Amino acid sequence: MVVLQAGFWLIVAFAAITLPFVLLLADNDRPPPTSILWDFSMGAGFAALTLAAVQFALTGRIKLLTAPFGADVIYDFHRFFSWGVVALMLLHFGVLYIWYESALGELNPLTARWELTLGRAALVCFGLLIVTSELRKWIGIEYHWWRVMHVLLAVTGSAAVVAHVLGVGDYTGTDSVRAVWLGVAAIWAGLVIWTRLLRPLRLARNPWRVIRNESRRGGVHTLTLKPEGRPLQAWKAGQFAWLAIGNSPWSMKEHPFTISTAPDRGPEISFSIKPLGDDSDRLAKTEPGTLAYVDGPYGTFSVDREESAEGFVMIAGGIGITPIIANLHALQSRADPRPVILLYANPTLDKAAFREDLDRIAKDIDLTVVHVPEDTPEGWQGESGLIDRALLDRQLDDATRDWPHMLCGPGPLIEAASTALREMGVPAHRISFEIFEMV
Asked: What is the mean pLDDT of residues 321-350?
């Protein structure tokens, strides 16, 4: 079913991107071909517009769309497609600038034709989107203000590029083609309205209240929330939600966190937060009684997708233990008899969050926990250093090769562990991971 859903959405995306070109080619009133370079430039421009529109669907948290892939993977698509939008815009402009400069008219925005100026403004907006996103931490832009800037640049750039296409009018002269681009603009506007108005309105009708803030090992704080409206519906172990604390649901100060409560222990839910900079420091200090808003659930990092699995291999690094612990709590609640091997890497044993919880869970289910500290205490006899091929060979026998392998942690750990697992013969489809940072 998941494969069919994924295939369906890929077909829809392909159709959405190619439909404008099909209609343009079928339009008998389109301008006659000028040259290969000119047509290539025009095609790059239209492709940029359709990809820009798709971006709003990718970031709109549409559950039917994210379900087969996982929201984190969708955000990765969004990131790479953003590079594609800017590359196509640069191709469109660059070909015209080098070979057809006269078609660009005045470059001075004070004297240039408005529709051409809007096209250049769109290019600047999307270029700034890429730069501020990829270099956000290096530049030092705070997460909240980056989100505000991101939304403003995306909306402004998309509106400018639609107006540019309709204003130039060379390929939108007929009613049918113009209707296509107006339809694209309408879908784009609808997604913006849903994301920034209607969804927050729904969240405002179902607020939550923080009832506990518990300090845990490794500097982690677990916030427990109680619903004051409708509880969270049908969430699976290991899924996450977007959490806004002490703000209106229209605020940009919301962050994705794993729901660390097992689904059958609701309706209260918990989020475990480690202060890592930006807004997480504020969230970790949340006082009981604070109002909150929860948008979810999202994600596919769940044992519930592996009902036929004979066992599980789980690999976590640092606070990446959070979705792992949520899945383990679910297995514990169900008294699941299947074996689980957990490899858990931390700078030191003292910084291993949920260490006591893991000990308790191991008393109820067949859980083997292998701690992997980088710095070991005196007399330590266990594993240490990094989770590499040699360590995996020692801890995982051939019988585990076809088990689901669930990885969550920093990027270097995921990359090294997944590469080593494939070298050991674990099929790629048996390796899943939760991307630790989506922004």
From this structure: 92
